[in-house]
Amino acid sequence: MAHSLNVSSLVSKQLVQSVHAKGNFINTVNKSYSKDFTQKQYVPGQTVTINIAPQATITSGRVGVPQDMQYRSTSATLGQYNGIFELTSIQKGYDIDDWRKFGDTIAGRLIREIEKTGMEFARDNVAQSVGDPGTQPGSLRTWSEARAKITKALGPMRSPHAAADPLAMVALTDALKGAKNPGDEISNQYLRGRMTRAAGLNFYESANIARHTAGSTSNTTPLTVGASSTAATTLSIDGLSAATATVKKGQRFTIGVLGTSTAVLAVDPETKQSLSYLREFVVTADATGSSSAITALAISPTIYGPTSGSLQNVSQLPPNDAEIVFDTISGAVRDCNLVYDTDAFTLVSVPLPAADGDVHTFSDFEGIQFRIGMGAWDAINGRQYMRVDAVWAWAMLQQDHACIVYGA
């Protein structure tokens, strides 16, 4: 006999706010690794290693000569979401098809929860950025600059995606008023109040855009302490405004000053020739100064100097006493809208094994595996419990194939 399913409580406030749709960010990321892990019974908290395809260095001239093909990898720690839903019923029996359909619906909505962690992961790992903090990015030129940065870094030419905060979407569609001869597509976008495609980007609106709060570091001039070595993942700095100054995760910065010997420039991904702008980095873990210094500031991407062959990503290793310039004023809070190519991220999704004592089924949504379980009927309280689980990990494979567009 069919069950009468009534949701009386939900454990996630974010879920309540986002029960109307699946996450677009999830649906566009590269999930090519997910099936490699689905059969291996991984558990939350476990770290997996994901290989990154090698890149050849090509010398200048008429003939391209591949240089050393160096392999590298990145690690990702599996996270878990557990959704427990309290179900009331007027009957003791239930039909398994009915509660599975209900579980499938809830699992689809939980995708938005996973998208939220993905946006936060992007905020904390994407080094490139455009726009001025504190202003709403309504200019299509700003978004186009983000796409151009990805293309400049040999990003695949297949229309990168643009995830916009709802207020940013309002500003973007309002900017269409100035477009000459907009045609049917742009006119319809303006009438709907939602951008779909413009400036070579596939736009979509997401309520899960991450926000970032800057630390109290940019009211002085921090400097590097000692020269860095190649393959460095940390940086030593001093000269902070106070002994307790904090550099926040997600903070972006450059090293050195253009036109001087301290400049750490970006390089062409193929020829490794120095470009005309400074390399950007991002802080990947909060750090608080001690005696106005931080001895191991965790950063991304890894610094690869001129001796690193195909992995080289800077014109020179950061020298001693090079100026650190953070990208925002102290304490600023802003939306981190995202422009990215699908090759930039990988989502690893792992199904959990069935637990004893419960009835379990497994469902798949866009490559993401969910375990749906129904507990025993509680005859005393007249209720049952449904549990929806998902295990996943985000990995940043190509830092240069994504760019943050600052918001208010």
When the domains are counted, the total is 3
Tell me the number of helical segments per DSSP (H or I, 4 or more residues long).
7
* Alpha-beta content class: alpha+beta
Give me the Rg, rounded. 24 Å
Arithmetic mean of pLDDT: 82
The gross shape turns out to be: globular
Total beta strand runs: 25
Our measurement of the CA-to-CA distance between the termini, rounded to an integer number of angstroms, reads 53 Å
- How is the main sheet built? 7 strands, mixed
The share of residues in extended strands comes to 25-35%
Q: Helix share of residues?
A: 10-25%
Which regions contain 5 or more consecutive residues with pLDDT less than 50?
A: none
Which structural traits does this protein have?
single chain, 408 residues, alpha+beta, Elongation Factor Tu (Ef-tu), domain 3, 3 domains, 7-stranded mixed β-sheet, 6-stranded antiparallel β-sheet, 7 helices, 25 strands, 19% helix, globular
